[in-house]
Each structure stands twice: as C-alpha cells, then as structure tokens.
Amino acid sequence: MSASLNALRGRTTILVIAHCLHTTLDADHVVLLSSDGRVVDQGPYSELIGRCPAYREFWNSRRKAENWRRPSTAV
Description:
The protein is of the alpha+beta class. The chain contains 3 helices and 2 strands; from the N terminus they run αββαα.
C-alpha cells in the first residue's frame, strides 16, 4: 500500500482511512475523529503527537498492541 500511495503522492489528493497508524506517518494532514465522528484534532503527525493527548494515547496503545502475543497454554 505504501508504494501505491507514494506513486500518487504529489500528483493528486489522497484520502486514507487508516487503522494501521504507520500509514499516516507521511501524511500531510491527519484528522483524529472521536467514536461519535467528531473532529478531536487535526494536523501533521509531528504536531499532533506533541499537542493532542488523545492522539498520543492512541499511538501508545497501538504500539503496545503490536508487541502483544497470546500467552502459550500448557496442554
């Protein structure tokens, strides 16, 4: 997906709805929505991560989830 986005970058407007947050790192503009669809904050990643607690908490929870593994169960 990143290769496709990079190929289009600069030539057209791209709207990406992402659950994989790394997809948004290179975005010019990110819009963080609440669970009821309201805009919580918006801007580039570098600004949001510094000023928006909800965005920062979301990022931190996703990073923790990436390292999560199901515990092995003894049979």
